[in-house]
């Protein structure tokens, strides 16, 4: 990830962490339904990587509260301060997710909620290949993406006083990237719910690493 792109996202979330957290519903039905689907595929105390964990609500906390061994990754220092308050049993790493270097088959599952959309889209295929490598055979990967293609920046996101940048392809290209990285698609669905303001529609994808990979 380029320094300028990373700095916009990192500093933006540092500045607006509390405002963004205030928009997060800890009982978000879309997120919780997706997490229930994921949990049904995991053994007790499974290891889960949460990429772009933010302030830990609701995802990191939900997973940790159910006994999973969770590692949360984010490069916003302020977001991680909040996450440690909300999910004290999880392990947190401050890092750019595109620069992580976990060993093969480190995790039983990986989740990425509203986070890969901040990674430059040209870097996303390599990131998905890394996620595939970090997963054990049969391991699920649960993530959401925007449904359309866009690469750009808002100078004052939601009037919170800081810029933010996004970068993503459309529906079919996201699925193609996952397949090219070696994943099998389990389910894909556009679901609409409350985002950081008005209702938003996201592409929710549950994929898995094949057992023989």
In words, what does this structure look like?
There is one protein chain. With 213 residues, this protein is α/β, with parallel strands linked by helices. It has one domain: Rossmann fold. The protein is built from six helices and nine strands. Helix 1 packs parallel to helix 4. The model has no long low-confidence stretch (mean pLDDT 95).
Task: Outline the secondary-structure elements.
Layout lengths: L2 H20 L6 H11 L7 E5 L7 H7 L3 E6 L2 H10 L4 E4 L14 E4 L11 H11 L5 E7 L3 E5 L9 E5 L2 H10 L3 E11 L4 E10 L5
Parallel strand pairs: 1-2, 1-4, 2-3, 4-5
Antiparallel strand pairs: 5-9, 6-7, 8-9
Number of helices: 6
What's the CATH topology label? Rossmann fold
* Structural class by SSE content: alpha/beta
Instruction: Encode the helix/strand succession as letters.
Output: HHEHEHEEHEEEHEE
Strand content: 25-35%
Low-confidence stretches: none
**Tally of distinct domains:** 1
In spatial order, strands of the major sheet run: 3-2-1-4-5-9-8
Rounded to the nearest angstrom, the distance between the terminal CA atoms is 27 Å
Shape: globular
CATH superfamily: Vaccinia Virus protein VP39
CATH class wording: Alpha Beta
Oligomer: single chain
In this structure, how is the largest beta sheet organized?
Answer: 7 strands, mixed
The beta-strand count equals 9
Helix content: 25-40%
Give the overall average pLDDT.
95
What value does the Rg take, in angstroms?
16 Å
Q: What is the CATH-assigned architecture? A: 3-Layer(aba) Sandwich
């Amino acid at each position: 990830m380029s320094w300028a792109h990373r700095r916009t996202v990192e500093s933006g979330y540092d500045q607006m962490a509390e405002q963004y957290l205030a928009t997060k519903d800890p009982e978000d039905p879309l997120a919780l339904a997706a997490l229930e689907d994921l949990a049904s595929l995991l053994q007790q105390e499974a290891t889960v990587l949460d990429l772009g964990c933010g302030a830990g609500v609701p995802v990191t906390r939900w997973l940790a509260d159910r006994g999973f061994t969770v590692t949360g990754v984010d490069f916003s220092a302020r977001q991680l301060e909040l996450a440690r308050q909300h999910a004290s049993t999880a392990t947190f790493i401050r890092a750019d997710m595109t620069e992580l270097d976990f060993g093969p088959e480190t995790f039983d599952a990986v989740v990425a909620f509203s986070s890969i959309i901040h990674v430059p889209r040209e870097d996303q295929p390599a990131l998905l290949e890394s996620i595939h490598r970090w997963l054990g055979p049969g391991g699920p990967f649960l993530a959401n993406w925007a449904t359309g293609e866009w690469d750009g920046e808002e100078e004052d996101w939601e009037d919170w006083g800081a810029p933010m940048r996004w970068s993503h392809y459309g529906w079919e290209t996201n699925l193609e990237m996952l397949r090219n990285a070696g994943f099998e698609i389990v389910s894909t669905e556009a679901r609409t719910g409350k985002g950081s303001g008005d209702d938003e529609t996201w592409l929710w994808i549950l994929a898995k690493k094949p057992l023989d990979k």
